[in-house]
UniProtKB/TrEMBL annotation:
Organism: Natronincola peptidivorans
Name this protein carries in UniProt: Biotin-lipoyl like
Amino acid sequence: MKKSGKWPLIFSISLGTSIFLFLFILRAAKPIEVSSINPKEMDYYEKVVATGRVVPTNMLEIRSQVAGTILESPLNQGDVINKDALLLIIDSQDISLQIKEKQLVETYNKRKTLFDHSL
């Protein structure tokens, strides 16, 4: 019976030694050094090089219907625009001259036609 009494003692000593060594190794392990940088906000540019031709799927021409000098704009950036709202005030002198010119050309053409028929 004395033989069976030694095994628990040997087991306890080896277990205690294992725990002590395990804890000693963990304490002795140095932490890993980590370096970091502070992120900066900046634009990212990506350059794409390709050959070929760029063709839009839909063509749209944007141009004014009236030619003239803009005198005033009652709108500010970010304003909500309602239907039929005044967008710009255009110098009417330029438009008046264009209208008068067209009227004079029409009058001249009518009188010339009448004159040519009378001959």
